[in-house]
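Data availability (excerpt). All sequences and predicted token strings are deposited with the supplementary files. A representative entry, BTB domain-containing protein, is shown inline so that the format can be inspected without opening the archive.
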Amino acid sequence: MSVKQEEVSSSSPFDVADTFTDVTFDVEGKQLHFSKHLLQMSSPVFDRMFTSDFKEKESSVIPLPGKTYQAMDTFLRQLHPAHCWKPITDGDLEALLQLADEYQVKHVQERCQKFMEAQISTSYITCVLLYLRLCDKHKFEQTRTKAIESLASQGRVKTWESCDEFKQLTLSTKYDLVRARCLRLDR
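Structure token line:
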């Protein structure tokens, strides 16, 4: 792939303002243009931000320190009806869930949960451990149970312990996982 093709394929549909954009996010020195109305319809946090006495109400450019351009682009694609078909990936999942929680966007949380559920049965152990950690963090109990069942049926505790994702699980989740594995072996 030539450099020119890489530049085109990595650009965001929100890099350029159009007649429907009325807010610009400044993220990592780059700008993402979007519609306040779409943000307000998707998020009670953005709705309050743009209708209450917050400085963002009158601002046309909103700096987002601590956020990454890639994560915000992926998040905005989930909100925009014309650009929401960018598939969620394992690499986007954690940042996307964090933004969905921060801005209280339920449909993005649900898409992430559905993505994990669809991937559990075909993913490598490290990915399922990631899903399990994220399910714990975001209280996706049904998906958490599926992840535990999947892990209990495949792999050994020593294999899990060698993964960084396993080390980040809570003690309670580790207990549930090891217990499920033991019960499976007891059959």
